Amino acid sequence: MDRYERIRLAENRRAAARYSAKELLWENLERNNLWEFFRYEFEEPDRRKAQIQFDNYLSALQDFFTSISYSINLVEHQEIHQILQFGAGRRISSLFRTAATFSHIVSHDRTEPLNQEEVREVSDCLLLFYVHMVGALDAIAISLVRLSDASLGLAERNADILQKNFRKKIGFDSIEELFEENDAWFFRIKDDLRNRFVHRVPPYVPPSVMSEAETQRFHELEEKIWDAMKNQRFDDVDAYRAEQKALGRFSAVISFIDTSTVMPLITTVTDDLMRFQYLYLSIFEALAPRVGLTEQD
Fold first, then answer.
1. Worst-scoring range by mean pLDDT, 9-18, 19-28, 95-104, 206-215?
2. What pTM, to 2 d.p., does this model score?
3. What pLDDT, on a 0 to 100 scale, did the predictor assign at position 40?
């Protein structure tokens, strides 16, 4: 297989991964071929959408990683190859592996409260998702700076593909409509989420929620635990603590402690990852001619 055949294969792989992600976006799911497959399992449209995304987003992410990795390996410019390999390829690989961990812990039908280790792991997953999304975008911006005319005087520390002024300076305006249409989403993942993890109070995934009756029982058990400890009835202490842990049920939400707001955990993550995949591949297509990944080159 010669270079241009490999380039065509890379383009086809990226196109397929982009199509898969687009099909799995929340607003497109009712037109998806999978919609009929799930129609008997869930009557409520939102539950059906959520389950379709959750059951299929990992395979789409795997296609994303393999298509980007294959494309990056074809970049002959050594500096750009390294920037994309370490700044984008490895981050996207981590996104896929992190999503696999996330899906192993949470699900739409889970009711069992998260244990301490699971809370930590899910919190780490959220951090990696939003830090890596923005980081992979930065890799494209830095690549564009390295490829630019030195007379432009562009500094890598100011490279931000999400800034219109930067895109204008770099002459990267062929997909300006894409950035404008998704401006609010880009702002949310960078400023509302990524920056929270890096600079402010990070969001929190509560292990469970309890009803009023369960809350009352929890406090009753606290008193029983203290009484049992004072009287050295350690078997009772273990039994009471086990009962406490069984109280409540897992409620899949992301809690923003500093603003007293919440958002759905699973559908936020799955839709954000699919939107990132679709947008990233769209942006990468505009970068491709500059790094020799089109047949015309």
1. 206-215
2. 0.87
3. 63
> Which residues contact residue 220 at a Cβ distance below 8 angstroms, ignoring those fewer than 6 apart?
none
